[in-house]
């Protein structure tokens, strides 16, 4: 006997197998969109955060370098004044005190920019305060002693500047422009050079307080 119900059921199954329902296609599209959305929610904030941190880091490095240029300028001026008529020229004496003040400001700014090395930079700043406190002693030093202190100041200024700019030697950029955005080499400062500058500062403190 011909079973109409069985025939109808089998025909429906065959049609279902031959052509997937629209709802099944819609489910696949929805799932794909959900996965894309989920990835976007997770990845985009991470990328944005990394980008922002990278921009701030490179900006801070560049500012540190420029501040060290200012520091070097004023330290070198102090050294030059020590090698000239500091003992008798009142104008030079006023200039000397002004340069000590400007150097202290430059060091304060650098300490604010590089909190991780504030203790080392503070030792250099304390050396500048010692020079200020012992200005009469400095004026009465003979030319050889003044020249020795001046030479140490020149060395400190060079080492400090190189400590915050040597990382540019590992990049393909020109000094002052900064490293490429994707740079991942050594970061400033150069610990060895900074410690050498601190050691020289300590030696100057001992020399002018004996």
Question: Can you tell me about this structure?
Answer:
The chain is mainly alpha-helical. It has one domain (61-209). It is 77% helix and 0% strand. It has helices at residues 4-18, 22-82, 90-113, 118-133, 135-139, 143-163, 191-209. It is rod-shaped. The model has no long low-confidence stretch (mean pLDDT 83).
Which descriptors would you attach to this protein?
7 helices; rod-shaped; 0% strand; 210 residues; mainly alpha; 77% helix
Task: Give me a quick take on this structure.
The chain is mostly helical. 77% of the residues lie in helices and 0% in strands. The longest helix has 61 residues, at 22-82.
Low-confidence stretches: none
- State mean pLDDT (0 to 100 scale): 83
Euclidean distance between termini CA atoms: 124 Å
Structurally, the number of domains stands at 1
Tally the beta strands. Answer: 0
Element order, helices and strands? HHHHHHH
Rg to the nearest angstrom? Answer: 34 Å
Q: Approximately what portion of the residues adopt beta-strand conformation? A: under 5%
Structural class, please?
mainly alpha
Global shape: rod-shaped
- The total of helices stands at 7
Helix residue percentage: over 70%
Q: Major β-sheet, in short?
A: none
User: What is the subunit organization of this protein?
Assistant: single chain
């Amino acid at each position: 006997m011909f079973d109409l119900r069985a025939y109808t059921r089998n025909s429906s199954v065959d049609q279902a197998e031959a052509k997937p329902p629209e709802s099944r296609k819609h489910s696949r599209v929805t799932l794909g969109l959900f996965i894309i959305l989920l990835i976007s929610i997770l990845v985009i904030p991470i990328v944005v955060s990394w980008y922002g941190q990278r921009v701030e880091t490179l900006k801070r490095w560049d500012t540190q370098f420029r501040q060290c240029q200012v520091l070097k300028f004023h330290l070198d001026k102090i050294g030059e004044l020590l090698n000239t008529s500091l003992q008798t020229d009142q104008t030079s004496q006023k200039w000397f005190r002004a340069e000590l003040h400007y150097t202290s400001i430059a060091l304060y700014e650098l300490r604010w920019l590089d909190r991780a090395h504030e203790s080392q930079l503070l030792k250099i700043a304390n050396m500048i305060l010692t020079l200020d406190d012992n200005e009469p002693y400095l004026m009465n030093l003979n030319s050889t002693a003044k020249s020795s202190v001046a030479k140490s100041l020149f060395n400190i200024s060079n080492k400090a500047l190189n400590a915050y700019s040597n990382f540019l030697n590992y990049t393909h950029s020109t000094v002052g422009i900064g490293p490429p955005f994707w740079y991942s080499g050594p970061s400033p400062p150069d610990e060895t050079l900074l410690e050498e500058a601190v050691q020289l500062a300590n030696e100057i403190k001992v020399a002018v307080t004996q």
